[in-house]
Amino acid sequence: MKPLKRVLIGAATTLVVASSAVVMNASPAFAEVWSCRAGVNNDLNAGWAVCEQGFGYYHVNVTCNSAHWPYSRTIDGPRVYKEQGFLGPESTVRGEPNGCHVVDARVVAD
Fold this sequence. Notes:
Blueprint: H1 2-24, E1 32-41, E2 46-65, E3 72-76, E4 80-82, E5 91-94, E6 101-109
């Protein structure tokens, strides 16, 4: 019985050490952006979003109104990546190609 016990203890120890190495070397599960701004440019009929701090993906999400059904809908802009230490690129979506008028914009961190 003792040899089996030693094998089981050795296997358990190996498993703990191996799983700890995997967890310690894992990359972050999510990115974080902050100091973000979003707005509507009425002249261009567009919504925009930009983030100044952190790193990771984000995009603009706009509410767009139209004269026909669906009268109001949500449209996502392009997903952009902000690098650490740099101003993030602008994510913009225009209402004209979608046949609607942009009335609200917000940032969505991915």
